[in-house]
Design goal:
Chain lengths: 229, 264
């Protein structure tokens, strides 16, 4: 088995996309590690669905006594306060997403299609569970939607597919896919996506090997390079 | 001056009727009007419709913890409109009862997403007939809804939700009913208060009129009909959270498992 990037490396690579001053919402999954991966000298203001902008690092075990139950994040963890932090209500929080005010969101994926359709909330709809949450609004509303995912599923099948077979979160919303094998841009404006452009590739892997694990035909960037962290 | 202060939670929910639509805000145990929901579990009532962004049990191992799921387990609920109800929290024998009720359709589950749910409450609060929302286009949320293209982008028509009762959790109220929330306790509570015909708020503290700075009021008193003070140490108070912190979140407990994700 050839070596792939670690989850931490995938998070570090997506964090390289962030620009100073961005407001970013991190979803559940690999993306949530990016909170600790921001390059030095860059200020990122993290947004959280429940109505927090600019929060501090997650509480660590040796700080657990400081835990404030009124400061949860979106995945049931607890966060710390930071100077400049703002609190607001749910309606404002989702208006922020829907209105395109967030610079970026980083979401996990079960499948991404060649047109940037995202499926990330369930393998199939079960009527008595609801897993929609805030992902639908983030995917449809943020200015940039980055997806961090392993390139293939546990069974070895490609997660980047011609058409998503799992229920969609939002159509043609993904702008960049960062996997443990490649960095792939979904070319074109939102809702009018044209295809996938392979920009970077994991060390030791060839274009053919990555293509073999990717259903849609990849366009190859003329300046294709190795993923650098 | 009309007295909005009610001395007990049971009295505050006494007029909740069969078939009533009840809205609440839930983020785990944060910002949830646990005591009002708890009072409903003691009341004879049926066919309720529950509206909240989460419909999950409170996972802490503490007996008094009360979530909307408890009402459903008692068979008092006909329908749930929510954007988060995972199988994750449903364990144990009572969970099987609930699972059966939901999967057989005895309890109807209307799935939405967070943004559309709060927008529907906002629409009710502001008197809009409906709102066009981009979220959900191209997904299962489209089913049965009108779609319209505005300036080249597709939108779904989402109708308002007008709850009969809104259960709100706030930090402080004054005697008029002006509300202030602490941190993320706020979440969807302001929208619940504004959308509901009758809004009942449970608070840590009731202040005299004038003690709240007008600039700091989050929910103006026009939206609040009843106020109940939570007894010191009661469910959802700071003391109660301190208590469950030691009970359910001691080092090596659940908290460690949750936090390990951040340790790289």
């Amino acid at each position: 088995m050839k070596e792939r990037l670690s989850e931490a490396a995938v998070a570090a690579r997506v964090a390289k996309e962030f620009q100073d001053g961005w407001c970013v919402n991190l979803g559940i999954g690999i993306g949530s590690i990016a909170v600790n991966m921001v390059p030095p000298g860059i200020d990122i203001y993290w947004e959280c669905e429940n109505g927090v902008l600019g929060y501090g690092p997650a509480l660590t075990m040796d700080e657990w006594e400081k835990l404030d139950f009124n400061l949860p994040d979106a995945s049931g963890n607890y966060i710390t306060e930071k100077a400049g932090m703002a609190i607001f209500d749910f309606a404002t929080s989702f208006g922020m997403m829907r209105g395109g005010h967030l610079d970026a969101t980083v979401l996990g994926a079960l499948q991404v299609s060649g047109k940037g359709d995202l499926a990330n909330w369930t393998f199939e709809r079960v009527p008595w569970t609801v897993g929609t949450g805030g992902g639908f609004d983030l995917a449809a509303g943020a200015k940039r939607c980055f997806v961090t995912t392993l390139h293939t599923a546990k069974d070895g099948k490609p997660k980047i597919v011609n058409e998503c077979t799992f229920p969609l979160t939002a159509p043609q919303c993904v702008d960049l896919i960062v996997t443990d094998l490649a960095v792939i841009e979904v070319v074109g404006p939102k809702l009018r996506k044209e295809g996938l452009l392979l920009r970077e590739i994991a060390p030791g892997w060839t274009v053919e090997e990555v293509q073999a694990l990717t259903e849609p035909r990849l366009m190859i960037a003329p300046d294709l390079k190795e993923i650098e962290l | 001056m009309k007295n909005k202060i009610v001395s007990s939670f049971d009295e505050a929910v006494a007029d909740v009727f069969d078939g009533a639509v009840i809205a609440y805000s839930q983020w785990g145990a944060t910002g949830l009007a646990q005591n009002l929901i708890s009072a409903l579990t003691r009341k004879e009532v049926k066919d309720l419709t529950l509206v909240g962004q989460q419909f999950i049990p409170i996972r802490y191992a503490i007996e008094e913890a009360c979530s909307p799921v408890a009402l459903a387990m008692q068979g008092k609920v006909k329908k749930v409109i929510t954007s988060w109800a995972t199988a994750l929290g449903f364990t144990g024998p009572s969970a099987e009862i609930l699972k059966e009720a939901l999967s057989s359709g005895r309890i109807e589950m209307e799935a939405t997403c967070h943004g559309n749910l709060v927008a529907r409450l906002e629409a009710a609060a502001s008197g809009y007939g409906a709102v066009y929302i981009p979220t959900g286009v191209g997904t299962f949320l489209e089913e049965g809804k009108e779609k319209r293209v505005i300036d080249g982008r597709e939108y779904l028509l989402e109708k308002p939700i007008k709850p009969d009762f809104g259960f709100v959790r706030a930090h402080k109220a004054d005697k008029l009913g002006n509300l202030v929330y602490h941190r993320s306790q706020r979440i969807m509570n302001p929208s619940v208060a504004m959308a509901s015909k009758v809004t009942i708020a449970e608070v840590d503290e009731i202040l005299e009129i004038g003690e709240l700075d007008p600039d700091h009021v989050h929910t103006p008193h026009i939206y609040v009909d009843r106020i109940v003070r939570i007894p010191r140490g009661g469910p959802g108070t700071e003391e109660w959270f301190q208590c469950i912190k030691y009970k359910g979140f001691q080092p090596g407990g659940q908290m460690r498992a949750v936090m390990s994700r951040y340790q790289i």
